[in-house]
């Protein structure tokens, strides 16, 4: 092949990628697809041989049963705690931080290693994002299930940079409220904006009076600002940015993943891998691909380049394209990550190439350099050396399921023959009307015969006791291979009979060993460790703003932009592989040992201290099924332990025990002398108190006598005063009555004198006057 000088053309790149897709597809279609197809069939209760006509069609479900035994235990291993993965720093990160000087109490800037704090924040945040926002439990469980059943459980992790919006409508907002909403940092667009005066506004009385004056006096000039205008209200809609990007993970079906045939493990050493999807033209246009290229792509017509089988139910992988219009037609899309010398410098670099269509008709949709890790991780419970595909439960249990199916069918057929044995009949001795009852018997039916020896039954030999040990033996083989049995979940009471505790523990340890190996392989062999490492890199690289999350009942702001993206990851697999009682017993024993060390060395020693004890308590709480153990046993870092130990070292050393004993002896003698003095003082004080009590009693008695005498004198004086008051009042009343009598008599005398005077005056008037002219004459 001639050497190329200069960059590669798109046609050359498409030819290379096309060849890689075809080679990986043929490799997948040759063995992996058949293995995957039969693994799924065995899991669903099918086998690769048929039953004889009229015989038992029973199928043993050993693959599914073993899968059901192991999967819950694995999930409990990793999800019994809120921290599936724990990040650990790989190097120091010195930064200037503000802290308070212990001596002066003033803030100061110091350079401090923040790597531990950074790792703790990353642990909390990534676990929160994976489990809460990415629905991590579901996707990881699906990958675990595929890994057990098929050998490899595939996961994809990527940063979705699409912007998410939400639309909100507002009505009746004033100017200030309108500006505060539309000027928000996350507001992208304002639409349907209407401005109108407030219909409920009432003009002030002063302004109304001015308007009335203007109506009566047209010549009156009114300033414009003298009449207030109604406030304006706003009705509008806004489009708010909810998210500018987010981490996403997804469990991939095995049939949607291609990898080169020479790959030994799914990591950056793989020269080619691809995510194969079947998507509509409309989805591709939404993703931003050129519409003309999308329209030119051939639609899927119900066949695959590498003869993919229909492996999963409710999957449109091999359905024909019956789209009502071209926008919903399905198109094969290959998202490829390939090592290729695209720029012609002789060194292959990783590129992300997206192609779509069938072989020979594929079109190039995207071609970008790829500097990140591959966006794939695989869960491999039992890896095989120097091979990409791991061993699966189908590999371990398929032959056992076949044997148990055959043996169980034979046992059932033998049971059927015992219940419904073959008949030997003499035709001439059986009434013709009863032949139907002989051939097809009914419950309680009657067979009429002319001779009792006309009908006999063939007794089938009972082979069930001979075949039952075969089933038991195959179960033992399956347990040795996978570690899964009824004892994996719980240990039955019958299994405990006539066995010592040591024997029981030995059996349990042997059973749990295989599950523990599965858990360790999932954690370390790519798997979860790679998943958490890639997710941290994606978050640190792409998240462009701080984010608030709720941790341990508190709102915490996380800003991953300053974190170290290359921190190491440790997956929690120390607990959960056995029973809860076994885990709790082990932790209790460990806790007791730690308490003994702490009692001997002190709670803040540098070997085993109170921080280690708190860690054990959290693990013990997690082993019993309690989540958020930090709420009950808070973390106490070793740096904090060291600081407390340093503070204790600054305190003065303890005194000499002999001096302490002498001081204690002197203190006892002093306390004895002080006690004697206090006793004598108390006796003297008691005598004085007795004399004081007697004197107080005498004084109180004298006071009571004086009070009684004084009260008697007061009552006597009061009675005398009352008598004087009554006499005085009587005398005053007598004087008043005498005066009133005198006054009445005087009034009567004056009235009599007045009446007498009036009579005299009348008599004088009636006397004749000496002047005759003045005499009064009558009419005659």
Give the beta-strand count.
Answer: 19
Distance between the termini: 191 Å
Shape summary: elongated
What fraction of the residues are assigned to beta strands by DSSP? 15-25%
Radius of gyration: 54 Å
What profile does the largest beta sheet have?
Answer: 5 strands, antiparallel
- Name the strands of the widest sheet in spatial order: 9-10-11-12-13
Uncertain segments = 303-321, 488-501, 776-780
Task: Tell me the structural class.
Answer: alpha+beta
What number is the mean pLDDT?
81
Proportion of residues in helical segments? 40-55%
> Helix count, per DSSP?
19
Q: Can you tell me about this structure?
A:
With 780 residues, the chain is α+β, with helices and mostly antiparallel strands. Among the domains are: 60-162 and 374-392 and 472-496 and 511-577, no CATH class; 164-243, no CATH class; 579-651, no CATH class; 663-740. It contains 19 helices and 19 strands. The protein has a five-stranded antiparallel sheet. Strands 8-4-14 form a three-stranded antiparallel sheet. It has a three-stranded antiparallel sheet with strand order 5-7-6. A hairpin with a 2-residue loop joins strand 17 (547-551) and strand 18. Helix 2 packs across helix 14. The longest helix is centred in the C-terminal third of the chain and has 110 residues, at 657-766.
Question: What's this entry about, in short?
Answer:
With 780 residues, this protein is an alpha+beta fold. Helix content is 48%, strand content 17%. It contains 19 helices and 19 strands.
């Amino acid at each position: 092949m001639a050497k190329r000088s200069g960059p590669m053309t798109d046609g050359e790149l498409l030819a290379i990628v096309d060849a890689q897709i075809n080679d990986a597809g043929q490799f997948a279609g040759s063995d992996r697809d058949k293995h995957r197809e039969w693994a799924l069939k065995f899991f669903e209760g099918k086998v690769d041989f048929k039953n004889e006509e009229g015989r038992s069609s029973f199928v043993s479900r050993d693959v599914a049963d073993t899968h059901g035994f192991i999967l819950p235990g694995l999930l409990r291993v990793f999800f019994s705690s809120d921290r599936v993965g724990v990040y650990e720093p790989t190097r120091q990160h010195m930064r200037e931080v503000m802290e308070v000087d212990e001596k002066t109490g003033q803030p100061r800037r110091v350079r401090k290693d923040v790597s531990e704090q950074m790792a703790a924040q990353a642990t909390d945040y990534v676990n929160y994002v994976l489990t809460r926002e990415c629905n991590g439990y579901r996707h990881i469980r699906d990958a675990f299930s595929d890994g057990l059943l098929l050998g490899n459980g595939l996961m994809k992790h990527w940063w979705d940079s699409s912007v998410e919006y939400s639309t909100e409508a507002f009505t009746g907002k004033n100017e200030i409220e309108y500006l505060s909403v539309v000027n928000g940092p996350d507001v992208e667009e304002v639409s349907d904006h209407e401005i109108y005066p407030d219909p409920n506004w009432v003009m002030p009385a002063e302004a109304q009076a001015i308007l009335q004056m203007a109506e009566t006096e047209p010549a009156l000039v009114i300033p414009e600002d003298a009449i207030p205008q109604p406030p304006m209200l706003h009705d509008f809609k806004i489009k708010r940015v909810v998210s500018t990007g987010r981490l996403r993970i997804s469990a991939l079906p095995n049939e949607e993943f291609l990898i080169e045939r020479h790959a030994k493990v799914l990591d950056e050493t793989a020269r080619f891998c691809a995510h194969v999807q079947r998507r509509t033209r409309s989805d591709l246009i939404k993703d931003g691909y050129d519409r003309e290229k999308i329209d030119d792509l051939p639609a899927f017509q119900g066949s695959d380049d590498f003869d993919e089988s229909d492996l999963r139910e409710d999957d449109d992988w091999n359905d024909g394209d019956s789209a009502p219009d071209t926008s919903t037609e399905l198109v094969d899309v290959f998202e490829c990550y390939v090592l290729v010398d695209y720029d012609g410098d002789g060194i292959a670099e990783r590129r992300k190439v997206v192609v779509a269509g069938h072989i020979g008709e594929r079109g190039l949709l995207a071609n970008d350099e790829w500097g990140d890790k591959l966006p794939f991780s695989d869960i491999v419970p039992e890896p095989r050396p120097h091979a990409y595909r791991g061993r699966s439960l189908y590999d371990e249990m398929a032959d056992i399921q076949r044997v148990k199916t055959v043996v169980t069918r034979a046992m059932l057929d033998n049971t059927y023959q015992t219940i419904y044995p073959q008949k030997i009949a003499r035709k001439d001795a059986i009434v013709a009307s009863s032949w139907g009852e002989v051939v097809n018997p009914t419950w309680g039916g009657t067979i009429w015969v002319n001779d009792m020896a006309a009908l006999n039954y063939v007794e089938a030999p009972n082979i069930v006791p001979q075949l039952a040990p075969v089933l038991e033996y195959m179960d033992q083989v399956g347990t040795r291979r996978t570690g899964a049995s009824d004892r994996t979940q719980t240990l039955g009471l019958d299994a405990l009979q006539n066995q010592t505790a040591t024997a029981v523990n030995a059996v349990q340890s042997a059973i749990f060993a295989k599950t523990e190996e599965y858990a360790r392989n999932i954690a370390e062999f790519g798997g979860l460790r790679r998943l958490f490492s890639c997710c941290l890199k994606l978050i640190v690289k792409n998240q462009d703003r701080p984010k608030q999350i709720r941790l341990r009942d508190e709102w915490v702001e996380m800003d991953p932009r300053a974190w170290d993206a290359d921190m190491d990851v440790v997956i929690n697999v120390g607990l959960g592989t056995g029973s809860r009682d076994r885990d709790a017993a082990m932790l209790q024993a460990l806790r007791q040992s730690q308490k003994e060390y702490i009692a001997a060395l002190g709670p803040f020693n540098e070997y085993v201290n109170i921080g280690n004890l708190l860690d054990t308590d959290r693990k013990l709480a997690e082993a019993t099924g309690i989540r958020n153990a930090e709420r009950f046993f808070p973390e106490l870092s070793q740096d904090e332990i060291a600081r407390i130990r340093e503070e204790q070292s600054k305190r003065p050393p303890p005194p000499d025990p002999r001096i302490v004993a002498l001081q204690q002896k002197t203190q006892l003698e002093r306390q004895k002398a002080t006690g004697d003095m206090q006793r004598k003082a108390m006796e003297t004080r008691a005598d004085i108190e007795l004399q004081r009590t007697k004197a107080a009693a005498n004084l109180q008695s004298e006071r009571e006598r004086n009070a009684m005498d004084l009260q008697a004198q007061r009552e006597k004086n009061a009675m005398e005063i009352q008598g004087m008051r009554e006499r005085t009042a009587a005398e005053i009343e007598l004087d008043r009555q005498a005066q009133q009598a005198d006054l009445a008599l005087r009034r009567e005398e004056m009235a009599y004198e007045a009446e007498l005077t009036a009579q005299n005056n009348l008599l004088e008037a009636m006397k004749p006057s000496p002047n005759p002219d003045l005499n009064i004459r009558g009419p005659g």
